[in-house]
Structure formats: C-alpha cells, structure tokens
C-alpha cells in the first residue's frame, strides 16, 4: 500500500494510481497458481519471523533484514529460497511467530483502529484529511494480521474472538484499498496448503465464513472493483482464489457460491471485452468448478442465459486461434463448461435454439484450434435420448458433410489438440448417436453415406474396429497379468477393470461395433462387405457380438430405466440378426 495513495483518497471515489488514466493499461497476467502460493508463503514466514514494524506516514519505510532480506534477494535461485524456507520452518520459534496472546493483542489493536476510523469518517465525512491517518493505520494492522496465516492452529481463537464478522464487515469499506487488503488476507488464511496443516482450524474457519455468507459479501465487493486499476484487478483474482480454496476444502460451498450471486457475476464478467484476459481465464476455471458436478448449478446457468453467453464467447474462436497457451486454456475451459452444461436436458434445448449446432459445425469446417472443442460439444449435445432433436437438426444443417471427412481421415497432429484416439472416439460417438436418434428422412441420408463410393466408409469402419480391438486385447492381457488386490472385493475389482478397459479403447470399440450392427441390419450389401473384410483379416463376427452384448449390459447413466430397457433389447436384437 502506497502512503501517498491513501492520503489522496476521496470518499466518493477510489484514489487513482499512476496508471489509471493510461488508456493502454491492461491488467498484468498473474503468475501461475503454484508460483503465487510459494511466493506468498515465503513472504508470510519471513515477515512473521522478523515481526517487521509498519511505517507511519511521516516515518521512512524500514528496510527488510535477516531472513526476510535473504528470502527476497533477487540473486537467489528458487531452490536456494526453498532451502532457506525449510530451515526457517524447522527452527524452533523464539517468540517471533504469532501465539495466542499475540493474536489477542493484534485483534484488539485491529478493533480499536477500525472503530477510530469509523468514528472519524462519520465526524469528518467532508474532510478526508482528518481520517486519513486512521485509514493508514487500519491498513497496516490488516497487513500484520496476515501473520495468523502462518499458524492455522490459531484459527479457532480468531473465530472465538469474533474476528471473522469484523474482518468481513470491511469488505464494504468505502475505501476499496481496505476492502482489497481484506480480500488479500482472506486469500492467505484460506490457502489450501495452510488449511491442510490444521484440520480443526480449517473446519472452524470455513464454518465461520459460511455462517457470515462470505461469498455473497465477496460478490458485492466484486461489483464495485475497477479492473483497469491493477490493485483492484489483483483483488478480483484473489477473490476467485478464495472461492477456489473454499470449494476445494468443502464441496457444499459449490452450491452456496452459485446461490449467493457468484454464477451471475461470472457470466457477466465473461461477456466483458476484450475476448480474453487473465481474470477471464480464472473466471472460466471457477465456472467449471461450479457446474461440473452440481446439477442445480447447470440449470441455473441455463436460466441465466449462460448457454448463449458461452456460445457468444466461443464464436470469437471460429476464425481466430488463441494467441497464447493461457488463452488456449481459456478456450478449452469454455468448451468444457459447455459440455458440463449440456448434461442437463433443458440446456440442450437452449443450445439448439441458440444455434449452437450451426456454430460447432462451422468451427469443424474452419479447421482452427476450436474444431477440437466443438467436436466434444457435439458429442455431448447429441448423446442419449435427450440428444434426439440435436441429431436430426445436425443432419438438416448438412453436418454429415462435415463429420464424415473427419471420420475418413483423422487430421494430422498439427491440425488438432486432441489425441488421435480422442478424436476418433468423439467422431464415432457422434455418428453412433445419430444412428440411435435419427428417424425418417434424416436416418436415410445418414445410412446412404455408408454405401456411397463403393462402401469406403464401411472399409474405414472395419479398419477402426481392428485397431481398437487390438488395443482392448492388449489391456485385457495387462489385466490378466496384474496381481490380485486383497484389499478390494471381486465386484469392485471387476468395476475397476471395466473402467480401465473403457479408457483403454473399449468405449470407442463399442461405438464402432454399434455402428456396424446398425448399418448391417439395413443393407445386405453393407453386411456382405463387413463379412468380406472380417474374413480377409482373419477376424470374427463373434468378437463384435461379444463386445455388443457386454455393452448392452452396461449402458451407463444416459436416459431413464425405460429407455435403457428398450435400448438393451434393441442392441441384443441387432446382435441376434448379425
């Protein structure tokens, strides 16, 4: 905190920084999460060891010495810093590290400074110079409170002394510098590594924060922060970090965060220009956490027009590739969020009405990096009984002209981000979904693709069948050779082995063999071609039947019980006719 900045504070607006009027300023890219945690951890322990005094306005700023100076020496390598850190942590504390008595004194000082600042702000509301000193002192004591983050065993004391409500109250302080300092403090005390050092302290702290509806208070503060000011942009980043920390420690906070206003704020933030910045990346990561496993949050996203917002953000990448690895990660996060959202039937309808299929189809044709994510999204939008309308619409918008060239030839590595196996899995899954869901004219257009050009697509299908059969057989041999684990029962072991086989190529093989059965049942010429190639390659129809019987018995989570029963009966009838 710069003293001059605080002294220039005006109640109606946050004080300007040197770069606030600079139109070319954009928030800097934050360091990686791990670098950030290590750096803050080093500084915390250094400051706690040195118990450095904070400067008053008229005093020169004290120079760091001892351990703190050593840790922050720019000529030190990271390895040397970590060695110093380990040494410091292993040494016995000799009164410098905060103890219970020290925390009580610190909290008492904090309460006094806070009260004095409030009184003077009320008394001299039109004369900021009268309360500026108290603001500087309040900011300084908040910085000193960061020492508690080095001793998470003291968190119950912090809660017992009613420190949490007093701290959270300052998120609404008229001076955003004070609010940002509180955010920074909360980010440090909720650091996952710190919380992991004291399970009791972590539990007490998190429950106290939840009781005060911390996410709602953080969102209120987010609404007023100006990200053109670097310190406030950092405040946004640290706020998102607090949410990430809390959700990692307690999954119930995922639902609470959405209900307390974070989901609407994130969607609004994603809509802001430019197309990409560092805080947008973090927003996309938090959005993924909020909707990945929570069905109610998926529905809330749809109700807040989140499907349209995600499509609008993704549309930029139809003709533009990301300009950095961070922006590429952002784009992939958006695609993953869309995949998660499409697990809800209601969102598939919104995706269809929002012309999501048309956008994904265009992305596949443009051959940019976005084609990889669009393929995954199509797979999610068209799978299962809820994908029926999307499957028929995809045929109507001439999607067959897009998907079958990708089926016939897997793009070279330079043209895709997905592995060849992942690419082939998604393409085969999309075609299998269309065969399952398309009816009438759309189904006929799909089936005709397999007879054109002298059955070339049937040849490709059998080529893929043999490729993935070999992969699955290799996994089966590996499973046969692995030693028996006595700690798990046979049922669990069978489930683990089945999952291993699925990820090892069985799922793609199931999609391929499902396609073979469906198209063979509709055309004698196709069935003859399949048998001809199987005989030429020394393969067997029995293998396909065996794979599909196993598939029929493990249909997964798509659809309800009636749909599963119908699908199982249908697959087994195809097997009998093959």
Automatic annotation (TrEMBL):
Q: Basic and acidic residues composition bias: which ranges?
A: 13-39, 50-59
From which residue to which does any coiled coil extend?
208-239
User: Where is the protein localized?
Assistant: Nucleus
Known SUPFAM superfamilies for this protein? ARM repeat
Q: Which Gene3D superfamilies match?
A: Leucine-rich Repeat Variant (1.25.10.10)
- TM ranges: none
Keyword Zinc found: no
Listed A to Z, the keywords are: Coiled coil, Nucleus, Phosphoprotein, Repeat
**Name of one Pfam family that matches:** CTNNBL
In terms of domain of life, where is this protein from? Eukaryota
Region: Disordered; residue ranges are 1-59
Residue span, Beta-catenin-like protein 1 N-terminal domain? 77-183
What would be one Gene Ontology cellular-component term for the protein? spliceosomal complex
Q: Which coarse location class describes where this protein primarily resides? A: nucleus
Show the PANTHER family listed in the entry: BETA-CATENIN-LIKE PROTEIN 1, BETA-CATENIN-LIKE PROTEIN 1 NUCLEAR ASSOCIATED PROTEIN
Designated name of the protein: Beta-catenin-like protein 1
Q: Which gene encodes it?
A: 101889723
């Amino acid at each position: 905190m710069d003293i001059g900045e605080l002294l220039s504070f005006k109640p109606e607006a946050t004080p300007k920084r040197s770069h606030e009027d600079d139109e070319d300023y954009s928030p800097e890219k934050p360091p990686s999460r791990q670098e950030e945690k290590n750096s803050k951890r080093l500084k915390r322990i250094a400051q706690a060891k040195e118990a450095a005094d904070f400067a008053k306005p008229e005093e020169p700023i004290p120079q760091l010495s001892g351990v703190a100076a050593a840790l922050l020496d720019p000529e030190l390598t990271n390895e040397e810093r970590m060695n110093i850190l380990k040494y410091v942590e292993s040494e016995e504390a000799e009164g410098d590290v905060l103890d219970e008595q020290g925390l009580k004194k610190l909290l008492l000082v904090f309460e006094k400074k806070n009260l004095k600042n409030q009184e003077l702000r009320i008394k001299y509301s039109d004369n900021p110079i009268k309360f500026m000193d108290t603001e500087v002192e309040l900011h300084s004591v908040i910085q000193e409170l960061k020492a508690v983050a080095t001793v998470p065993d003291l968190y119950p004391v912090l809660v017992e002394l009613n420190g949490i409500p007093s701290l959270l109250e300052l998120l609404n302080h008229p001076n955003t510098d004070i609010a940002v300092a509180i955010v920074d403090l909360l980010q440090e005390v909720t650091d996952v590594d710190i919380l992991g050092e004291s399970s009791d302290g972590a539990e007490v702290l998190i429950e106290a924060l939840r009781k005060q509806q911390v996410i709602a208070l953080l969102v209120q503060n987010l609404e007023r922060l100006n990200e053109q000011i670097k310190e406030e942009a950092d405040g946004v980043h640290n706020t998102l970090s607090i949410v990430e920390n809390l959700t990692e420690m307690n999954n119930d906070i995922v639902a609470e965060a959405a209900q307390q206003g974070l989901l609407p704020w994130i969607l609004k933030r994603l809509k802001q220009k430019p197309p990409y910045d560092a805080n947008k990346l973090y927003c996309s990561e938090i959005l993924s956490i909020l909707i990945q496993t929570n069905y109610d949050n998926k529905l809330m996203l749809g109700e807040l027009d989140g499907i349209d917002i995600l499509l609008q953000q993704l549309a930029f990448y139809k003709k533009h590739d990301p300009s950095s690895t961070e922006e590429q990660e952002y784009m992939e996060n958006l695609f993953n969020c869309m995949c998660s959202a499409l697990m809800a039937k209601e969102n598939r309808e919104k995706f269809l009405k929002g012309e999501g299929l048309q956008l994904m189809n265009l992305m596949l044709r443009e051959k940019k990096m976005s084609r990889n994510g669009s393929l995954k999204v199509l797979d999610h939008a068209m799978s299962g009984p809820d994908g029926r309308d999307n499957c028929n619409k995809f045929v109507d918008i001439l999607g067959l002209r897009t998907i079958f060239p990708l089926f016939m030839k897997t793009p070279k590595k330079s043209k895709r981000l997905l592995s060849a196996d992942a690419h082939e899995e998604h393409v085969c899954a999309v075609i299998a979904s269309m065969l399952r869901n398309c009816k009438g004219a759309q189904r006929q257009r799909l089936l005709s693709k397999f007879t054109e050009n002298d059955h070339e697509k049937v040849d490709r299908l059998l080529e893929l069948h043999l490729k993935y059969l070999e992969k699955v057989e290799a996994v089966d041999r590996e499973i046969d050779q692995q030693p028996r684990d006595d700690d798990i029962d046979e049922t669990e072991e069978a489930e683990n082995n089945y999952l291993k086989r699925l990820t090892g190529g069985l799922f793609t093989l199931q999609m391929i063999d499902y396609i073979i059965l469906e198209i063979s049942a509709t055309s004698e010429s196709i069935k003859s071609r399949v048998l001809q190639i199987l005989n030429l390659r020394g393969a067997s129809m029995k293998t396909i039947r065996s794979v599909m019987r196993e598939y029929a018995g493990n249909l997964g989570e798509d659809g309800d019980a009636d749909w599963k029963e119908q699908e199982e009966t249908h697959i087994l009838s195809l097997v009998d006719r093959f």
